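Support case: adenosine-5'-[phenylalaninyl-phosphate] complex. Customer-provided input:
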Amino acid sequence: MLQQLEQIQKQASEELEKINDPKELQLWKVRYLGRKSRLTRVLRSLATLPLEERRKIGVRGNEVKNILESSLAEREKILEEARIASSLKYKKLDVTLPGQPLSVGRLHPITQTLEEICDIFKGMGFQVVEGPDVEWDYYNFEALNIPQEHPARDMFATLWVDAEVGSGKARLLRTHTSPVQIRLMEEKRPPIRVVVPGRCYRYEATDATHESMFYQVEGLAIDKNITMADLKGTLVEFCRCLFGEERKIRFRCDYFPFVEPGAEVAIECLACHGAGCRVCGYTGWLEILGAGMVHPDVLRRGDIDPDVYSGFAFGMGVERMPMLRYGIDDIRLFYGNDLRFLKQF
Ligand code: FA5
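Agent response - structure generated as follows:
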């Protein structure tokens, strides 16, 4: 048996020397140290041997086992070091290669437009404030002269958050940024000069110029002696800054329950230069905002005396600005998340 042990050690060591592959190393381990290996069989048979022989063979058997185990660990270490060295060799840095281009992120075109609009108004002395997207019926409708059952509610296809529609206390996703007018009047005393950028939501079928989620920028100015001329001057200056001096602007009468008189401002369609196309609904004009002089009842609700103060307000659709500027013929492109489109801005 001693001879058998010597033979096992010699053969195992010779084979181990030649192994360069981790899979082969695993097979070697099973062959020489596994449960069915010759060495294990010898060690298991010790119990059947006479005491003196058992001691001698047992000691030598355990020596062989320890030698094989430490030779295996050593070989594993050598193979691992060789693997790391070869992987480093291939990953060497070649400083002469051209660098990998870094893709630079950018702001969404609507965010860029919002910033530009706010900057123009800041230049005219307006402050920028924000209001909540989830709004009370009171601020979105009632305080703006649109009580329950008022037909003007049909102008704003509403997405309700609460089920008790008609109670005046129901919440909704604001259909315009005008509710912030009331919130501001409750908080601030005139003179007030603010613009309010924010998201609006309407439950309506989308088409080339309508989305169910879109942005508006509200404007509100309240002071003594504010007139329609101030409103017109402010909006003409704004349109000139954004669209250039020569762009045609059209003011027409319009109705909004919270202003008196009310106006609609449209701009000559940039896509067709007034000839008529899909973007402008074949009219040559694109409506960009609603405006007017703040209704005396609305001022009263904000605890502002209409006999002393007057004000103007406007609310503009933001998506229509870049559509006009860049000749984009479908509003839905802004929210389709197609990077080929977004990367152009
Ligand atoms: C309003 O929302 C009024 N709050 C505006 C206002 C404010 C009037 C202050 C008077 C005083 P209107 O529903 O027309 O009005 O919307 C204003 C602008 O938002 C429109 O001119 C249009 O540019 C944009 N808009 C309206 N609905 C959508 C929509 N579904 N998708 C994209 N833009 C829209």
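The chain has two domains: 2-87, 109-342.

Case will auto-close in a few days if no follow-up is received.
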